[in-house]
Amino acid sequence: MKGGRTIKDITEREFSELVHFIKQNYGINLSQKRTLVYGRLNNYIVQSGFTSFSEYFSYVKNDLIGKAGVTLVNKLTTNHTYFLREPQHFELLKKVVLPYFAEAEKKNKDLRVWSAGCSTGEEPYTLAMMIDSYFGPEKYLWDTKILATDISTSVLEKAQKAIYPTQQLEMLPDKWRATYFQKLSEESSILRETIRREVIFRRFNLMNEVFPFKKKFHLILCRNVMIYFDEKTKKDLINRFYEHMEPGGYLLIGHSESINRYESKYQFIAPAVYRKG
């Protein structure tokens, strides 16, 4: 950055235009995040050679390929996650959800799982380790590939590398660490290929009107994603999840989130756990 140069603060009009653009294209509501927006974009705009916020935003809007918009979203979204986050969910999966589908799908041996808003991969990889551990020697008989999607290309790139700080693995069971990870150094470890190939990473915008999935899911996790959405956006998304879920399927959301029982067909099972009847 040249001499620590900064751009002027974002005007009300510029901020309103940005909020509208992000909301319309990505469903994310930044109307109360003006300080965050300025803080995250200032250095990037200067380093990219723009002289003002308006000049940068004009470039984003006129980029027909859409790459500039993706970069903008990468800069503005927070991707905080870790292995076994919200452990109550994984206890439920181990004790209730997996046993149910192991029986219900024992003929087809097909378990379809979607980690929506997968960030840097800890959630889908935790699911893959849990499924592998649960089925054990029978695992090879099942198709349990996990679809993991996110709007941010930068987090998907990290997820696909599957390299994590060794200290981040401390909350995992000893057996999982020994079985599923290979130490690269004292500081980092990489997931073994057996687990990495169980997860399919794709960039996907949850605001898409049409979900391009041929088959319905048995389990969808969309945790701590909808905190950025307004009520209508959230309601529409939950209804799309419902339409793309098998009867008896489970939806898991973040513990700081909730679903209005009068605006959804989902049945409440436990905090942040819902089921399609």
Characterization of this structure:
The structure is a single chain. With 277 residues, this protein is an alpha/beta fold. The chain has 2 domains: 2-76, Chemotaxis Receptor Methyltransferase Cher, domain 1; 87-275, Rossmann fold, CATH 3.40.50. The chain is built from 10 helices and 10 strands. The strands form 2 sheets. The chain has a 7-stranded mixed beta sheet. A 3-stranded antiparallel beta sheet has the order 3-5-4. The longest helix is centred in the middle third of the chain and has 18 residues, at 87-104. The protein is globular, with a radius of gyration of 20 Å.
Helix percentage: 40-55%
At the fourth level of CATH, the homologous superfamily of the largest domain is: Vaccinia Virus protein VP39
Derived from helix and strand composition plus strand pairing, the structural class reads: alpha/beta
* β-sheet strand percentage: 15-25%
- How far is the first residue's CA from the last residue's CA? 56 Å
Keywords:
277 residues; alpha/beta; Rossmann fold; 3-stranded antiparallel β-sheet; globular
Question: How would you sum up this structure in a few lines?
Answer:
By secondary structure, the chain is α/β, with parallel strands linked by helices.
Chain-wise SSE layout:
Elements: H1 12-26, H2 34-47, H3 53-62, H4 67-76, H5 87-104, E1 113-116, H6 122-135, E2 146-150, H7 153-161, E3 163-165, H8 174-180, E4 181-183, E5 188-191, H9 193-196, E6 199-203, E7 217-222, H10 231-243, E8 245-253, E9 267-270, E10 273-275
Parallel strand pairs: 1-2, 1-7, 2-6, 7-8
Antiparallel strand pairs: 3-5, 4-5, 8-10, 9-10
